[in-house]
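tool_call predict_complex ligand=2-acetamido-2-deoxy-beta-D-glucopyranose
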Amino acid sequence: MWTLLVFFFLTFQTGSSESSCEVVISPQQSVVKFGDPLTAICNASGSEIEGMGWESTKNGTEFTEGISSLPLKIDKVDVWKIDPMCYANTPDDQCTTVLEVTVYKTPDSVSVSESLDEIGVMREGQPYEIACSILNVAPIRYLSVIWYIGSVSVYEEHFNRSDERPINVSSVLKMTANGSHDGSEIWCTAKLNLQTEGGPPSRESVQHRLTVLYTPVCSEPANETLEIPARGNVTLNCSAKGNPKPSYSWHYPQNMPSTAINGDHSIQTLSFAVPGVYTCTASNSQGTTVKYFTLVEAERDRTTFLVLLGVFLTLGVLIIVGGALFLTSSGRFSFKNCPPGSSSVI
Ligand SMILES: *[C@@H]1O[C@H](CO)[C@@H](O)[C@H](O)[C@H]1NC(C)=O
Ligand SMILES: *[C@@H]1O[C@H](CO)[C@@H](O)[C@H](O)[C@H]1NC(C)=O
Ligand SMILES: *[C@@H]1O[C@H](CO)[C@@H](O)[C@H](O)[C@H]1NC(C)=O
Ligand SMILES: *[C@@H]1O[C@H](CO)[C@@H](O)[C@H](O)[C@H]1NC(C)=O
Ligand SMILES: *[C@@H]1O[C@H](CO)[C@@H](O)[C@H](O)[C@H]1NC(C)=O
Ligand SMILES: *[C@@H]1O[C@H](CO)[C@@H](O)[C@H](O)[C@H]1NC(C)=O
Ligand SMILES: *[C@@H]1O[C@H](CO)[C@@H](O)[C@H](O)[C@H]1NC(C)=O
Ligand SMILES: *[C@@H]1O[C@H](CO)[C@@H](O)[C@H](O)[C@H]1NC(C)=O
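tool_result ok
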């Protein structure tokens, strides 16, 4: 049994060493721009190498005897698929290795489609589809398209297609218009992620400004509660954002004298105010937003009372403590500071 195993092992080892042959291509992979040159070197190792060659649609080399190293030199890679294969022959075997070549081409153009101009002005809450067209790019499987709105990336798309030749593709961004987008720039970028150092840079489309119509939004806080100060003005700030620009209307408590109201449309200054609810309505073609200002009497009456009470209490305590001290010291004065012997002075 053991003999059999050892015999088998020996045979196996002898067999493998007989056809021992290995070809190594350097670099193992190559990324080349369409039209650029490509070079590689193939080394063969093993005993009994008879010779080697390159099989390639461009600048291939015939089988050459008596060598173990052979370069491949292509002046201009002008095909989209090229799989150069290096081979080496031994008397009873052949070993081969294929050089993986990625031929790329950066896009001729990257642009946000005209549909954006057709869309024109957007309305908040409505869905929109905007296309980015990328012309003449290869290979598509390495392409990533990133959409930006106001320098924030909002969507990234990859293309799971095996095309080697350049094609046109389009990435469609599905978005819901939002007031926060109004006035922001939108654009798309296309990049080939070739996993090589300093690969081709990404290419950006022209930026387009978004216009979104939206209902007025009051700046925080949504509602305000303010104290009426003893002196000075009360400012009611109802500034709201909106497109179109909001217009404002105000509603005051009935007993509020209109002569005490000053200010422009979004901000009112009250030189005299009565407690109550002041209502500001900001509206535009898209809708209306209401902000409530609740004005309350400052707690000055109670505060005054408390202050007075505090003063009286303090005074009272001071009087009692002071009186006690005075009594004590005068007691001391009469008994200690006037010893019997010195009473003659008085
Ligand atoms: C391939 O062989 C050449 C010539 O013998 C040598 O200069 C080179 O370093 C070898 N390359 C590799 C990757 O082994
Ligand atoms: C590669 O092949 C082209 C024609 O197929 C030839 O003009 C060129 O000289 C070759 N380059 C090398 C380095 O052999
Ligand atoms: C707009 O975006 C804000 C936050 O970015 C979100 O709270 C709000 O719901 C969005 N409005 C619409 C109509 O989608
Ligand atoms: C790409 O597409 C193939 C076939 O359509 C699918 O099997 C594969 O999972 C896809 N890969 C990715 C990353 O989506
Ligand atoms: C890509 O689009 C351009 C311009 O529309 C066109 O000339 C070209 O033929 C298209 N290429 C492919 C591969 O469809
Ligand atoms: C503002 O006050 C009104 C009336 O009291 C109320 O209906 C509304 O919900 C309040 N809004 C906010 C955001 O608190
Ligand atoms: C109060 O408002 C009125 C009118 O806007 C202004 O003339 C006055 O100077 C303000 N008073 C103070 C204390 O801010
Ligand atoms: C009113 O509020 C807006 C938004 O918070 C702010 O930009 C503006 O300076 C305020 N105006 C006044 C007079 O406080």
